[in-house]
Every structure is written in structure tokens, then in C-alpha cells.
Amino acid sequence: MNLAGMNVSSKRSLIARDPDLIAAAVDGEMVMMSVKRGEYYGLNEVGARIWALLEQPLSTIELSERLCAEYEISPAQCQADVEPFIAELLSRGILRQQT
Amino acid sequence: MSLAGLLQRPGPTLRGWRQVWRSLSGVERGLLLPSWCLLGLARLLILVLEFPQLTRLLGTEIKTGDFCVLLAPQQLNRATAIGRAVELIARHTPWASLCQAQALVARFWLACFGIPYRLYYGARRNELGQLEAHAWLVAGPVFVTGGNGSERFAVLAGFASRRQAQVLFERHAQH
């Protein structure tokens, strides 16, 4: 699986929201816009939940743990699903890595 | 960006235009032709410029802030006239003059007349689940362009005239 820029050592680094993004909750989903990039983004309910959990910076491991507690999913599957999603959001500047 | 509530209608007949012309005020008539040209320029700028560069033409960034300033009656009339003229002529450009271009042109006229404004970008999911975006311009209580249906969109970015932005920031500082 291509983890698009995420290497093992970065799994412990914290993931945080880009503070310049403005996001709005609409019907349990999120819409957001980056003025810097001139792009709009939409997150579905699970994505919106991940965004909500990232109100405080978390590592992907902590994030997976919290998601596992809320959704009926195995830890391994959760981590496997979350990592590409986080990698995608990182590449788009929606989230950033804090060391 | 999708066509948020904007329809392209076939051009009116000559008689139709005469009726339209008669219904317009002096300010509106004067704005038609220059607005037509500016809409062309706006389209070019939107195509050529990166969004952050384009936003420098919009005013001071106010994010999702809102503060309705009181406008003098003449300013209210002018703002309404600008909106009517721009929205009218936007339907008759050979290229698509969408909400963003209209907001840009109308914002230019508001600045010319010294009328404070707020310009917002928003998004929503439409009935088909697609992400839809819209841009609209407000001066005081008047929706100048893009007002139709703007309440359905979540506000995600805002820009305002310098004076309007100053008032907004001062208000924030007070609380």
C-alpha cells in the first residue's frame, strides 16, 4: 500500500489541522475552503468525525484508537484505512504534521 | 464551480430591450456597457490568476465575519442599481459570467462609489451530493449580486472593503 510520503518514524508525529482553513459542518458532513489554494473540499461523515477529533493534534495511532472505539472496525483495518486518508489530506494541505 | 442559480436566457428582442431600457434608472443605464467590458476582464482574470492573487482584488480578508453597516439612502439605491445592472448584463455576455465574475465587477463599482461591502465564498452539497460553490456580494443589508439562494451555502471565505473590515476587527477587539 502506498502511504504517500508517510514513513514509519512519522507515525508518531502529531497531525494537526491547517489553522487557515475555514470549515463548516453541514448535515453531519464538512465543507471547507483553502483560500491559499483556491480549492473547496468536502468530507463525508467519517471524514468529518476525523476532522472533529483533530481539534487537538493527534498521532495517527491515537486517531485510529479513538476511531476504533467509535466505529465497529478492527484496529488493523482502521489503521489501514486511516493512513491513506490522512496522507491525502496532508498532501492537500488540509492537515499538517507537527514534529 | 457550478452554475449556482444562474440561468443563461436567450437574448430579448429589440422591443424587449426597449422595455428593459425604459425600466432602468440613469445609473443602471450608465453601468451596462462598462460592466459588460469589466465582466470580460473579470473572466480573464479568473482564468489567468491564481486564487490567492485574485483575492488581492477583493479587499481585506475577513474570513466568516459579518457586520452590517448602515448605509445612507443614496448608497442603498446605488448598491441596488449596481446589482441590477451587473446581474442584467451578465446574462448577455457571449461567455459565461458566473457569480464570481459578477461579484468582482459589482465590487469594483461599489468601491468607485465609496460603498462598504462584504464579498463571500461558500459551498454546499447539492441534491446530487456534489460539492457546489457560490460567491455573493453584500453592501449593508442589500444583496448586490449572487443573493438568490446564497443562504443555502455555508460561508467559507469573506472579503470586505477596508473600512468595513476595520469596523469588524475593532468590534472583535472590544469583546
Overview of the structural elements:
The complex is a heterodimer of chains A (99) and B (175). Chain A has 99 residues and is of the alpha+beta class. Helix content of chain A is 37%, strand content 24%. Chain A has helices at residues 45-53, 60-70, 75-91, and strands at residues 14-17, 22-26, 29-34, 39-43, 95-98. In chain A, the strands form 2 sheets. Chain A has a 3-stranded antiparallel β-sheet with strand order 2-3-4. In chain A, strands 1-5 form a two-stranded antiparallel sheet. In chain A, strand 3 (29-34) and strand 4 form a beta hairpin. In chain A, helix 2 (60-70) packs across helix 3 (75-91). Chain B is α+β, with helices and mostly antiparallel strands and 175 residues long. A 5-stranded antiparallel β-sheet of chain B has the order 1-5-2-3-4. The radius of gyration of chain B is 16 Å and the shape is globular. The N and C termini of chain B lie far apart (36 Å). The mean pLDDT of chain B is 89. The A-B interface holds A 22-24, 26-27, 29, 31-33, 35-42 and B 50-52, 54-55, 61, 63-64, 121, 123-125, 131, 133, 154-157.
